[in-house]
Amino acid sequence: MSTRVAVIVFPGTNCELDVQHALEQLGGTAELVFHTETSLGGADAVVVPGGFAHGDYLRTGALARFSPVMAAVGEHAAAGGPVVGICNGFQVLTEAGLLPGALQKNAGLKFLCETVECRVDSTHSVLTSGAALGAVLRLPINHFEGNYICDAATLDQLRADDRIVLRYVDNPNGALDDIAGIRNEHGNVVGLMPHPERASDTVLGSADGVVLLQSLLDAATARSAV
Q: What residues does 206 pair with on adjacent strands?
């Protein structure tokens, strides 16, 4: 039986089908779960995809954190289950307190839609465990609020605990310490601004995201086998 991944859908989410397609191309089973659900249906992993959850009204991700499904996502994370938030999903995870810090408007106040280079700076996460430390991946970004910020104490903790999983080679949005992605203390919750699902086929320009999505599936499979 293939690994089951719950892909959370909020009003305004627009990358759920991309994530579903990419995961299923790798042999996983991706099931769309609407934000009003209170259960993940026994999924092995969770992806919170990109888009504009609840229209990004009030503050990006601030309304999505109160959706019923987020209680189930939080329980899954607390139990050690793999959770990945991509772009808007990263913003939602910070608002929900599953990851530290916040995302603010890009430096220069411009929406960015381009392919960037990201360096793998930690392999101690469910998203990067199969990648080579120091590898540079070409991944698309598509955001207006991708500028990661946190206080000095949090940044020191992230650095000391090897929790910065991806850094921009050439920082496009002003993110603190070139941060493109971080993990929680245990490495089972990861948030990143670049879109690995949009770099899952050479026809799309890059397949560098495959190693990240495959890492997620492998981590979920290993956990479910215990």
A: 201
Q: pLDDT band at 150, cuts 50/70/90? A: very high
Strand partners, 140: 115
For residues 184 and 147, is the Cβ–Cβ distance under 8 A? no
The residue assigned the tokens 């101690």 is 124
Q: Which tens digit of pLDDT belongs to each residue from 58-102?
A: 788 889 999 999 999 999 999 999 999 999 999 999 999 999 999
Nearest 10 degrees: Cα torsion 150, 156, 158, 160: 180
Tell me the whole-structure pTM to 2 decimals: 0.96
Cite the active site residues. Answer: 87, 195, 197
Amino acid 58: pLDDT: 77
From CA 5, how far away is CA 47, in angstroms rounded?
7
Among 181, 100, 184, 101, CA closest to 141: 181
Structural domains present in the chain = 4-225 (3.40.50.880)
Burial 176-205 (b: 16+ CB within 10 A, else e): bebbbbbbbeebbbbbbbbbbbbbbeeeee
In the block, tokens 């009204």 appear at 57
- Partnered with residue 3 across adjacent β-strands are none
Residue 203 predicted with pLDDT over 90: no
Fill in the DSSP letter of residue 51. B
Asked if 103 contacts 62 with a C-beta cutoff of 8 angstroms, the reply is no
